[in-house]
Amino acid sequence: MASPAPQSAPIVTLAEVEAAARRIEGAVMHTPTLLSRTLSEVTGATVYVKFENLQFTAAYKERGALNKLLLMDEATRSRGVIAASAGNHAQAVAYHGRRLGVPVTIVMPTATPTIKVMQTEGHGAQIVLHGDSFDDAYTHALRLEQERGLTFVHPFDDPQVIAGQGTVALEMLADAPEIDTLIVPIGGGGLVSGVGIATRALRPDIEIIGVQTEFYPSMYCRISGKELPSAGDTIAEGIAVKKPGATTAEIIRGVVDDILLVPERDIETAVSLYLQIEKTVAEGAGASGLAALLSHRERFAGRNVGLILTGGNIDTRLLATVLLRDLARSGRMARLRIQLQDVPGALFRVVRLFDEHRVNIIEVYHQRVFTTLPAKDTSIEIECEARDADQLKALVDGLGQAGFNVQPVEIH
């Protein structure tokens, strides 16, 4: 990307961000920005993390939603608001709407996980399930806005929402003035727009880097002029936006130095590292800043990097899968496919080697029928747990030396 160009007529100003901070004070948590010594050792940068997953709804979205609601007059609030979202924005609008006595309607795609529907309903919102995608839900929400006389609260393409999100930067720069680089996740662009506006005004020397998943590079393409598809299953669904905002794109051109794309594998690793090292839960989008740091270590080596852990709303089953996959990649867990003769004592010989190498067996899968092996042979798959990759390698070598054909089952 080219160097940021100054804006002739700012869409959102520092004064508006500072006013938003005063407006939401006390109702939204001033989350801590803490130095992570271990993440610093892992990445080669000095890493500061802002824990927005500690908000009541576990995400930064409360800031922009509340600022928008507080700027409405009483008549507008009494008629009610509507939003389209299947995630953090929905909960933010619903939670603060109930606090302020504002009727809230949320339109969600029909495939929205039940837990997210229940959490949003739990904040007092009326839920409307419509369409197969966010775009379907968004279009329907705009229709209901007109039919019912409601006010639409956009998740990112709204100056008042952007100003609210910018309060993240005010807190970070006050709490960790050493920061010289900010890495900010981008979906629709509301957070990086607000953070960028505040940072450029207060600390123009700071480098601002946006991050998108490789599956959804929509803002990257809009800014760079490149054409890449935005599709696929990502654990960073919070930034899986096919159509970025027009307002946010204009701001990003003026305040963001670069946008990096990160692969799913690094996002999974980042989620796992946050839990292992910081003992905190990060959703995929929330961990994408750390993923960028992992993907581009040389670029950030020696820098004082600020990361925004934007949210912690991740399905527990998905979190378990991510953690287990990370164990497999690190060599602490594996599945070994072993060919052996289908005779008495053959399995015992295999198990004895596991015992000798002190590798724990978790599951054993025996396959005699659905295989291309000779009828007198069999294939077993053993899921096992080792201390580290070296211990696992010693076991595989030992099995090979004993005459067994061993193939680790790889994950990507």
TrEMBL record:
Reading the lineage from the top rank, the first entry is Bacteria
Q: Which reaction does it catalyse?
A: L-serine = pyruvate + NH4(+)
Statement: the UniProt record of this protein carries the keyword Lyase: yes
Sorted keywords for this record are: Lyase, Pyridoxal phosphate
In short, the EC number is: 4.3.1.19
What's the top EC group for this one? lyase
Gene3D superfamilies registered for this protein in UniProt: 3.40.50.1100
Cofactor section: pyridoxal 5'-phosphate
Q: Which family does it belong to?
A: Belongs to the serine/threonine dehydratase family.
Name of the molecule in the record: Threonine ammonia-lyase
**Start and end residues of each ACT domain:** 335-412
Recall the GO molecular function terms of this protein's record.
Answer: L-serine ammonia-lyase activity; pyridoxal phosphate binding; threonine deaminase activity
A single Gene Ontology biological process assigned to it is:
isoleucine biosynthetic process
